[in-house]
From TrEMBL:
It comes from Tyrannus savana. One of its GO terms (biological process) is cell differentiation. PROSITE patterns: SAM_MT_PRMT. This is Protein arginine N-methyltransferase 7. GO terms for cellular component: cytoplasm; nucleus.
Length: 685
């Protein structure tokens, strides 16, 4: 069966109808899935195995048959662990059809078909009884349904249902319990992901300050979790205001309630500072005694055990609705509220206790609109003073009092900068997405008469939109909220082409050009997410590896994927290389842009893949990199732009250059199809 999927092409902006095979989404989902990462998570696997063995023994010691329910079996791994620990029978439930199929294959390959029944259903659809999916209720419940926030993948309703309908009272659960920990911190770097700081602009007629709308000050933001690799956050970037404390725990061996609830703890501030952020992570005890513990604690909270790198479980950053000063030794209450799928936090000072009942129960709703318009990284980018200064400097070189300026970027502050920096003429700006929300921002700065928002696609603009004036300065960051990969922001080039007839013949375009850069890297850990596993804890899971490989090869050319590399350390094995340039001063050419070449490997290491990013050339000497900022030492450690995701192209086979006696090189061919806006690439090692 074929389906047609409509989407706006992120680079060209054109509406496209793609004919997709029915299983297309499956391929995307499998190719980009976290299964490989989970299978590489040795610490998790070993502890699950220990916990499962212990649970089976406890049941056997009671003289009972061990009947296991494994909800979300994935590859079947945990069921196979149970079967080889002596379980009498396992029901392995998996809702995602391609995975359930893979589980059947893997279970068979490992010789467990008589002990494990794979059920391709959501657990809430599973029936129990003589004609049901399960003959009887299970007495061991095994699951791995957790995300970084613990409950975001629906663990609570799944457990609630399972205890009511699928398992016996007093069943053993692996894991037995989960505990959520919190720590109150002050961090300018992280707070910058949630609030817009005032921006100072030195204008000809004095200093101007761009201020956020007042609604933003107390805005609770959106309830979506900010999950990051907290181990990459240097301790100099935050100050702990409290010790690490337990916020709440869930016992999975007893009936679980998923209904909304709140938890409250008292904290004593260990330092004075601004309470802004709650850092949070969890651990799971695989057994009731708590001897088998798997923790997500970051480096400073877990100094004793070796850190296990994993990407499927990270740590959470929660933003308090507003920052509040706390003094050393001051007691405050922290409240965590949750619904079925998400958690949010509020803080109350002792003096505000009476109001505490009202605090926080409602899920946060963004009132300032900024949290709907900008994601965390975008907030960080807009708060990056150094970056803003570069735009200011560049704008100064191109604007004068006669400028008629058009800005094409999403939720951008460039229009405000341009206004303050001289373009006193009426200005016109287009913001394609969610423009109405943005008008609040202009109002807060009393600019609603100065900056006109045009809500139209660029190809539909008419001279009347510009009061019959021609645009003399066209500016962009460029940034578009639909961009996933670095080159998607080339949409600016297409928009620029579409508005050509409205531009003066000597129009200034800022940035004047962009370039695509590439570098070969060795990842410290990120390679695991796309690397085959083979044997996992003694079980052959190659069928899973094959399935991922098939999905990766589903499209003729493999695709690059976006990752914020400041969270994923790597070392450069080659020099960075400029591979393509895009001249925004001219329109998008009819012909495609292609390049071929080779890069020498300068350092020993494993070539896991190529990283690609864009650089924007704003003016003669002012360029902005969305990728590599610098190579910080002779070992090749890289500093990446912290606000952008870079494109990572994983090589299908890794070459290891242990000696550089014979200089090794990687050849590449990169092709930008100007019609489709797509970049295809091929690498040979
Ligand atoms: N148990 C495997 C895989 C864990 S990933 C392992 O530990 O390696 C979680 C899996 O659970 C996913 O494949 C997802 O599709 C599935 N899943 C989540 N909730 C489910 C539910 N309620 N019923 C059935 N499958 C579920």
């Amino acid at each position: 069966m074929k389906t047609f999927c409509g989407r706006a092409n992120p680079t060209t902006g054109a509406m496209e109808w793609l004919e997709e095979a029915e299983d297309y989404d499956y391929h995307q989902e499998i190719a980009r899935s976290r299964y490989a990462d989970m299978l590489h998570d040795k610490d998790r696997n070993v502890k699950y195995y220990q916990g499962i063995r212990a649970a089976v023994s406890r049941v056997k010691e009671r003289g009972e048959k061990a009947i296991v329910l494994d909800i979300g079996t994935g590859t079947g791994l945990l069921s196979m662990m149970a079967a080889s620990s002596g379980a009498d029978f396992c029901y392995a439930v998996e809702v995602f059809r391609p995975m359930a199929n893979a589980a059947v294959k893997i279970v068979e390959k490992n010789g467990f078909s008589d002990k494990i029944k794979v059920i391709n259903k959501h657990s809430t659809e599973v029936t129990v009884g003589p004609d049901g999916d399960m003959e009887c209720r299970a007495n061991i419940l095994v699951t791995e349904l957790f995300d970084t926030e613990l409950i975001g993948e629906g663990a609570l309703p799944t457990y609630e249902h399972a205890h009511k309908y699928l398992v016996q009272e007093g069943c053993e659960a692996v894991p037995h319990r989960a505990t959520v920990y919190v720590q109150l911190v002050e961090s300018k770097r992280m707070w910058a992901w949630n609030k817009l700081f005032p921006i100072h602009v030195e204008a000809e007629d004095g200093e101007k300050i761009i201020v956020p709308p007042s609604e933003m000050e107390n805005c609770p933001g959106v309830p979506s979790v900010c999950d990051i690799q907290l181990n990459q956050m240097p301790s100099s970037d935050f100050t702990a205001l409290s010790d690490v404390v337990t916020m709440f725990s869930v016992d999975f061996s007893k009936p679980v309630q998923s209904a909304s609830t709140c938890y409250r703890v008292q904290l004593e501030s260990v330092k004075s500072g601004k309470a802004q952020i709650v850092l949070s992570w969890w651990d799971i005890d695989m057994d009731p005694s708590g001897m088998i513990n798997c923790t997500m604690a970051p480096y400073w909270a877990n100094p004793t055990s070796a850190l296990q790198w994993r990407d499927h479980w990270m740590q959470c950053v929660y933003f308090l609705p507003k920052e509040e000063p706390v003094g050393q030794g001051e007691r405050v209450h922290l409240t965590a509220c949750r619904d079925e799928y998400s958690v949010w936090y509020t803080m109350q000072k002792a003096s505000e206790e009476e109001n505490e009942a009202a605090a926080g129960v409602e899920s946060p709703v963004c009132r300032c609109h900024a949290h709907l318009l900008w994601n965390r990284a975008r907030f960080g980018e807009l708060n990056d003073q150094e970056r803003t200064q570069q735009y200011i400097q560049a704008l100064r070189t191109v604007l004068n009092t006669d400028s008629v300026c058009l800005c094409i970027s999403d939720g951008s502050l460039l229009p405000v900068l341009a206004h303050y920096l001289g373009a006193k003429q009426v200005q016109y700006f287009i913001l394609f997405f969610r423009c109405l929300h943005f008008s609040l921002f202009f109002k807060a700065n009393h600019l609603e008469d100065k900056i006109k928002i045009i809500e139209a696609r660029p190809e539909l603009l008419k001279p009347s939109h510009f009061e019959d004036k021609k645009i003399s300065v066209l500016v962009a960051e460029p940034f578009f909220s639909t961009s996933l990969l670095p080159w998607h922001n080339l949409y600016f080039w297409y928009a620029r082409t579409a508005v050509s007839s409205h531009l003066t013949s000597n129009v200034t375009v800022l940035p004047q050009s962009a370039s695509l850069h590439m570098m070969i890297v060795e990842f410290q850990d990120l390679w695991r997410i796309r690397s085959p596993c083979g044997i996992c804890e003694g079980f052959d899971v190659q069928a899973m590896d094959d399935m991922i490989k098939d999905s990766l090869n589903f499209r003729e050319s493999k695709e690059a994927e976006p990752h914020p590399l400041w969270e994923y350390p790597c070392k450069s094995l080659s020099d960075p290389q400029e591979v393509l340039t895009f001249d925004f001063r001219t329109t998008v050419p009819q012909h495609c842009l292609s390049t071929e070449g080779s890069v020498n490997l300068l350092r020993k290491g494993k070539s896991h893949g190529a990283v690609l990013w864009m650089e924007y050339h704003l003016a003669a000497d002012i360029s902005i990199s969305t990728g590599l900022m610098r190579i910080s030492n002779e070992k090749g450690s890289c500093d990446w732009n912290r606000h952008c995701k870079q494109a990572v192209y994983f090589f299908s086979s890794v070459i290891e250059s242990e000696t550089l006696a014979a200089p090794a090189a990687v050849t590449y061919a990169i092709h930008f199809d100007t019609k489709t806006g797509e970049i295809a690439m091929d690498f040979k090692l």
